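Hi, here's the filled form for the chain we discussed.

Project: internal
Contact: R.S.
Residues: 304
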Amino acid sequence: MSDFNNPFWSVYVAALALVGIAGCLILLWVTARKKVSAGADNTTGHVWDEDLREMNNPLPLWWVGLFVITIVFGLGYLVAYPGLGSFAGKLGWSTRDEYQSEIDKADRELAPLYARFQSMTPEAIAADPQAMAVGERLFMNNCAQCHGSDARGSKGFPNLADHDWLYGGAPDTIRETITKGRNGTMPPMAAAVGASDDVKNVANYVLSLSGSPHDSLRASLGKPKFIACAACHGIDGKGNQALGAPNLTDDIWLHGWGEGAIMAMVNNGKMSHMPTQEGKLTPAQIQVLASYVWSLSNKPGAVQ
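And the returned structure, exactly as it came back:
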């Protein structure tokens, strides 16, 4: 990508724009001067579909005038606005400034509304229909791409509508996650577990923790080897929210279920990233969004 920061490309784009306009002028000049021999009936001799004849008439003046106006407008636009490579234009307009001005205007208009939300507890925000409407919009614009429009996630992206939380589901914790983001790391554990057969045994033991179908003999052999995983997941496999280590006893599988999926996780590890929203969203927006996410699993009928 660094090649596209080369000054050459700015000159190239500017030259391309000017050559295009110059080409239009040349085309107009050539067509105005070129004389096509015509017969006594003022046709060029070209015939299509047996009876359609091409007339040898000059370009209409109104058409030529509009063509010239378009060229002049194009040149004026390139002087006033960005279009000639890195030249910013005499008016100093930019899409970045335009976008920022719209954001600033929206922030000013919404400031009184967010000020009211900031004085409320997360539980009160979650019970406020107006706040939840705002929270839903924030979620759709910033979170639904990964977690889904229904917040139920998919493989590799947590379900936010249940009570299974990697780092904790309290409003303050959710707000921290949204603000700072999260980096989940499951290191490759094959060397710590032992031979490939031991990895398979551990996979069956992990399946047994949630009552999933498994080979009971292999599970019994894998239990002693699970000690290598207990530092993060706990000796009972219930996980550790301080580390973001999943609960292995609840039959919720973020990265895939089954012996093969667990073996792949033990052998290869897994890296996951939740991007930070700090700087992208204001603290007031994050508070409303966190309360909305918290409400998804703390309302009547929520999945337990």
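Let me know if anything looks off before we file it.
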